[in-house]
Amino acid sequence: MRLFVALEIPASVRNNLSAVQQKLQLSGADLRQVRPENFHVTLKFLGETSSEKVLSITEELREVRTDDAVSAKFRGLGNSWHAKRGGILWVTMEVSDGLKTLAGEINRRLERVGFVAEERDFLPHLTLARFKRNSALTTVRATVQNYSGQEFGAMDPKEFHLIESKLGPGGSKYTILESFHFAPAADR
Prior knowledge:
Elements: E1 2-8, H1 11-27, E2 32-33, E3 40-48, H2 54-62, E4 72-82, E5 86-95, H3 97-111, E6 125-131, H4 137-146, E7 151-155, E8 159-168, E9 171-181
Antiparallel strand pairs: 1-3, 1-8, 2-6, 4-5, 4-7, 5-6, 8-9
């Protein structure tokens, strides 16, 4: 099973970002767009995981808590390009300390069941598209410039999800295996 832990995106944000993708599609740039129903904010990528390990993962995730409000604003776009790996177009995010704490707590909890802890700081983003050829860079960079500072909406999630990703010819299909409400740390 290919698993990750993530936050879902509100419909209003999803619709605003889908409009950006529609404009990109009209540009003719060679981009592989993420389907709007697959928009999410990854908190922890687990990768290939045995089904026997899912129970221990869910037990740890049930214990995740944060005292701080978890929120994020989606504003502006960014991109990166690597000759060997290709490029990514993403939505940048302004996040609360609570969201950073949530990601850190998930990271620590899952280390207990054998997942390597992230050493780098949590860098939240939402991927809109990927591209393999640098010929798309002109369009991608123009799009980033055109949407500089553009507000796409906000979220105040109350739960996160353990999600399975199945790769297929039409792209990835995501299935929520379980949802977890985060509660005050005093409830531990």
